[in-house]
Here is the input.
Amino acid sequence: MTANRVALAAGVDGVDLDGKTVLVTGSTAGIGRETALALGSLGARVIVHGRDRDAGAETVEALHDLGASAEFFRADFASIPDVRDLAEDVKTTTEELDVLVNNAGGYFRTGRLTETGVEYTFAVNHLAPFLLTNLLMPTLRAAPAGRVVTVSSEAHQNGKLDLDAVESVEDYSSFSAYARSKLANVLFTFELARRLETVTANCLHPGFVPGSGFMRDLPVPVRGPAQFFGSLLASVPFVPVSSVREGAETPVYLAASPDVADVTGSYFADRRERQPAAPARDVDAQRRLWEYSIDSVGLQASETI
Here is the structure.
């Protein structure tokens, strides 16, 4: 297969994923798409997920051009039934899932609630991957060495786990909602890792990515300055500013590198283990979030880890 720049940069170009199946959520654009293409270039069968069927078809075609097997499933992560349908589609398609990359997410300018009464950012960025991971755990455990990789953000440093706030959009702050959801990604990963034995779970900060959908969804007063300062920071050494391809390097590394085959319950940035913010390391908060999430998405006892 053709060498992929992300796989090369992530140090996994020599890894052979032939015979392995990976699901990358939100893989029709941005970091998710680059992650999917890199893993496909290593020989993996790639399950592509997104909301746009045309974009999904284009990503599948690009993977086929690389010689990879790929298929697309549509699901809206604001919808619990859609997430459940996606899990069923995946389980019908494969008995073993080697890697789940929880990449899908967004930054939403306007405060709104989902049909189940949960703040939209929290539902899409945390509850959807929480539900999907639980539902797909039998297929991950069936693989020889399953991995769960969740894309968080350094924005988690500003997050507060206020579970009352996720059921209201009064005094909505788009950045506070985003930071809370990214903190939830880290808390979820650490609690998940404690509950697993044969499957690893890690999370990551992909870098500040000016070309991602996240930048596009910033409010206009913030978007311009962010793009301007992002372009300035990109020229400064040692500042974690990335292109979309660079942003995909750490998820690809965690999904494919033998160096992290036995690493679990860690937070990464630039392919290195980092210490997340103190609130993310709060074991009581990790457990409270887990129990809240089970109730919020309606997981049955037989479906939970």
Q: What stands out?
A: The first helix runs from residue 5 to 9.
